[in-house]
Amino acid sequence: MDNKxxxxxxxxxxxxxxxxxxxxxxxxxxxxxxxxxxxDPKHIGKLPKEALAASAGCGNPxxxxxxxxxxxxxxxxxxxxxxxxxxxxxxxxxxxVIGVDMTPDMIDLANKNKSKxxxxxxxxxxxxxxxxxxxxxxxxxxxxxxxIVLAPDKDNVFKEAVRxxxxxxxxxxxxxxxxxxxxxxxTADIDNWTxxxxxxxxxxxxxxxxxxxxxSKVEVVSDVPYRSGSETDEDWVASLRxxxxxxxx
Length: 249
What we know:
Layout: H1 3-23, H2 31-35, H3 41-44, H4 49-53, E1 72-76, H5 82-91, E2 96-101, H6 104-117, E3 122-126, E4 139-145, H7 154-164, E5 165-178, H8 184-187, H9 191-194, E6 201-202, H10 203-213, E7 217-225, E8 240-248
């Protein structure tokens, strides 16, 4: 098995375990959304607890830019569906939200959450985010929450995004990036891919990939430390940044 496939399988296994843990209601996991200030409690208060518990993001992509009534939105790495359900309320009953995830257990969990929500304008598809199978030039907005960092081939992810977006379509990304290169010992540990660390890239590298893929405008909307430093953190932790990006095709 080559390194790309090994990374994908490791990530799929890890997030499959998370989905099964959430579905079985074991543990007291609150999830990123429940503990973060980037989500309005009024917006997430009516979501299934399983959707909140499965959230493992680093931002709120739906807060980066407006979603319009009737728009088609695709979530790259939809997990338990939290950002899809929030987007579904924004685009209305004439809109359409497609969650794409490569983990079967996450798709199962998201569909169970969909049934609880009665979200008729949302669907979930099992696929890789660099090979979605979605029709070209058919999507108004792509959202993604700390998932592209997990992809071993980010160039293909951004090329796929450009392919499916309409002309003038937008991409709202919350993701982890770097101010300095990580030590080789960190990036060489395949388990660090599942922790959204080993796949993180320098901000300029990440943004240039987007531009080279065909985005005409890429703007960093916000840039904050991924986590507050502590005396026990190694020096490289300070280079991890949580960023929100708005891009236009």
